[in-house]
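Exercise 7.
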Amino acid sequence: MRAKINADLKSAMKAGDKQRVGTLRLINAAIQSAEIEAKKELDDAGILAVMTKMVKQRRDSITQYTSGGRPELAATEQAEIDVIEAYLPKQMDEAAVSAAIADAIKEAGAASAKDMGKVMGVLKAKYAGQMDFQKASAAVKAALG
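Solution. The predicted structure, written as tokens, is:
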């Protein structure tokens, strides 16, 4: 994953794509910061987690910029999201998330809300970067409750 990002950074620099270069540098900086914090090199799953967090932060910024009447800043954030999402696995739709939750509940043998941690563990192991776990958590809670 890191090698692909660095290769794309070089090609974007050669092409003179300033927006893409800036975003890829932000990705590299975020990964490096997370590695320093973890005191070890991140694997692909760790890098996906960092980039997912970056997308979430940018979506929050877009909401704030839009409500604050700053559409040009919101457009910049959206352009960064587009670059970052190119490296993330395709997000699952609502039906696929519901099916995955049902499978995870069966696999974990969950019967009540006490088993929610087991179900979320199964989901995170199988679908890292493919679903919003905050929304999935609420769906699991509803399914078990």
